[in-house]
């Protein structure tokens, strides 16, 4: 079984140097396209208290959360050996809601394929951060997608999936 789990904030976001309003967050858009490619419904990580919709409010809350990770709504739970985990780059790192989720869920034997949306910093140090929170998870090469291209991510996703398949096949061939 495979799961797509993501964290994303709708509302105001930066796009090409200006603030725009979006009904679905950038990472949610990417998660939905990945869901279409893999025929899986993406599952959101949601904090108990919803984020503000304005960019200044989101940033203020995100800053406060650095020292106190938020409580989450129930779910999604881990029931697969392979999880695609998506989130935005926040201050070069994993958003605290995702850290809370990793802390609460045992992703020990699970393969994690991380996709991140960003405004220039790519994956940042997300993969190292995740490995520290889930030391026994198997972390595969991640994918970074610019927020402004989140609604047209199919090609990047297809390339990523293909590269991961080739890598898995090579590993299996080496074992034989
Ligand atoms: C609190 C906060 C911190 C951010 N920090 C960074 C950053 O360090 N580097 C970067 O490239 N983008 C940063 N961004 C931009 C987001 O990663 C980007 O807009 C992302 O696509 C938003 O995803 P979402 O709409 O799914 O929430 C930040 C955004 C927020 C709200």
UniProtKB/TrEMBL annotation:
This is Flavodoxin-like domain-containing protein. PANTHER family: EXPORTED PROTEIN-RELATED, FLAVODOXIN-LIKE DOMAIN-CONTAINING PROTEIN. Pfam families: Flavodoxin_4. One of its GO terms (molecular function) is FMN binding. It comes from Lacticaseibacillus saniviri JCM 17471 = DSM 24301. Residues 23-152 form the Flavodoxin-like domain. Transmembrane segments: none annotated. It comes from the Bacteria. The lineage of its organism: Bacteria, Bacillati, Bacillota, Bacilli, Lactobacillales.
